[in-house]
Amino acid sequence: MATDVSIIWQGTMASLAAGLASGVGAMAIFFVRSVSDKLQDSMLAGAAGVMLAASFFSLLLPGLEYGEALLGTTWAAAAVVIFGVMSGAWVLYYLHQKLPHEHFSLGREGPHAEHIRRIWLFIIAITLHNFPEGMAVGVGFAGGDVRNGYVLATGIGLQNIPEGLAVAFSLLAINYSRVKAFTIALMTGLAEPIGGLFGATMVWIAEPIMPWTLGFAAGAMLFIISNEIIPETHRNSYKTIATFSLLTGFVVMMSLDATLG
Asked: Cβ contacts of residue 191 below 8 Å, gap of 6+?
């Protein structure tokens, strides 16, 4: 039990550290007057690449391994993980349909979005991003695999830096002061430890469904990558640099997992 509680604590604290990295990126608002669309697209695409690699190497592959150990066959493990992936994606899709929010450039989405202040729409959107990321970190500590959890937290923290920068400059663009923009960007990262606590607790309470839980976290992140981040980074004329930035982020996270995981 002490070990289980320790895993929950470590998962929560690691996701908190990853979430606070948003503030590191947001600090640029005090030193840089503006960020070009080209740079912002490339940075967000790199973040998407980190998330993509984390989904595969830190969530899906361990999920398949745990599933095979629990169920005894590869096909059964794959079926459970696939169900988890689709469950995570559908939950995020449902939340996006039900919660009003606003993307950096794609505009407002969800019901009654036109009646809500833009700042709250931004906060909801970033929370929808950060909660599954934090949950993935918490789940990454599944089975006591502390090293995998910290590698995943490192990757998520790295991708939060450009995201925090993008949030801060987006708020600056709608006439928020630099201090308020920084503070809000920093606070949005606090959705991650909530997700981390949720993910780590899910594993603690129901270890037999760990392959599904790992797949769920991966599916939620894959939905965010495909449905939001990639379209955001392809909105201008920088598709090629965004693509190579995504690949760069992917190989950076893959290297972290290979050398530290």
From this structure: 19, 126, 127, 130, 131, 134
| Measured distance CA(200)–CA(118) in Å, rounded | 32
For residue 238, give the amino acid letter. Answer: Y
CB 48 within 8 Å of CB 249: yes
**What mean pLDDT do residues 201-216 have?**
79
Q: What letters, b where the CB count within 10 A reaches 16 and e where it falls short, cover 28-39?
A: bbeeeeebeeeb
User: Which single residue is written with the structure tokens 């066959």?
Assistant: 73
The per-residue pLDDT for range 143-200, each reduced to its tens digit, is 667 787 888 888 888 888 888 887 887 777 777 788 988 888 888 888 888 888 887 7
CA distance 253 to 132: 18
Radius of gyration, CA atoms only, the chain: 18
For the cut 80, the answer to whether the pLDDT of residue 205 exceeds it is no
- Interatomic CA distance for residues 133 and 140, integer angstroms: 10
CA atoms within 13 A on the CB side of 232: 29
Task: Please say whether the dihedral angle defined by the alpha carbons of residues 257, 214, 77 and 83, taken in this order, is positive or negative.
Answer: negative
Sequence-ordered strand ranges (E) for the chain: 101-102, 108-109
Quote the CA–CA distance of 46 and 48 in Å, as a whole number. 5
> Is the predicted pLDDT of residue 60 greater than 60, yes or no?
yes
- Return the pLDDT at 2: 39
Q: Measure the CA–CA gap between 246 and 238, rounded to whole angstroms.
A: 12
